[in-house]
Write a structure and sequence with these properties.
By secondary structure, this protein is an all-alpha fold. It folds into 2 domains: about 90 residues, Rna Polymerase Sigma Factor, Chain: A (Orthogonal Bundle); about 80 residues, Winged helix-like DNA-binding domain superfamily/Winged helix DNA-binding domain (Arc Repressor Mutant, subunit A). The protein has 9 helices and no strands. The protein is elongated. The chain starts with 7 loop residues before the first helix and ends with a helix.
Length: about 200
């Protein structure tokens, strides 16, 4: 799995830009809010997709999230980056949406991008098959474990960011990571011992 990394200077610069834009929005600049939407709509859409929201619902859900952001922007405090605050709001909205939609029979599987684009066709096929097995196994985990595994291993959040996003202590995140990994391993080995049993 590839993970996008930025230097500390890039992150600090982005955070400073976000602070300026948020201040402008709070002072009544609607164009500044459009800048936030443009900058972060993919982040929100990605979170929705990874949490199993159907493709045809994502655009509406992104709009709902940004409506909430606009309405609640005065609650944002710069102790955390704007993107972390936004991501927490988005994940909570997505989870609420998921709870409301749980009666639907068919859910889109959450994607895990585990394949290495530099590998050969045979290895890519094997990676895709393993990814499919992992996705299926993840669906069997308790939601608390699944959420934490997604945030830390798929979204690349640090433990403290995941804790803030879910509104739980860091110790809870660490515990769920440990138990979630073990639960995932057990499901994979039980269902696919020929692939994961060694």
């Amino acid at each position: 799995m590839q993970r996008f990394t930025r230097s500390g200077a890039d992150v600090d610069d982005r955070a400073a830009q976000d602070q300026r834009v948020v201040r402008a929005v709070l002072e009544g600049d609607r164009n500044a809010f459009a800048e936030l939407v443009t900058r972060y709509q993919k982040l929100v859409a990605s979170a929705a997709w990874r949490y199993g929201i159907r493709q045809e619902e994502i655009e509406d859900l992104v709009s709902e999230v940004f409506f909430k952001v606009y309405r609640n922007l005065r609650q944002y405090r710069p102790d955390h980056s704007f993107s972390t605050w936004l991501y927490r709001l988005a994940v909570n909205h997505v989870l609420d949406h998921g709870r409301r939609s749980r009666r639907e029979a068919h859910r889109v599987e959450m994607p895990l991008q585990l394949s290495d684009p530099g590998s050969g066709p045979g290895e890519q096929l094997e990676d895709r098959e393993r990814s499919s097995l992992v996705r299926s196994a993840l669906d069997q985990l308790r939601p608390g474990y699944r959420e934490v595994l997604f945030l830390v291993y798929i979204e690349g959040l640090r433990v403290e960011e995941a804790a803030y996003t879910l509104g739980v202590p860091q110790g809870t995140i660490k515990s769920r990571l440990l138990r979630g990994r073990e639960a995932l391993r057990r499901v994979l080995v039980a269902r696919n011992p020929e692939v994961f049993g060694h």
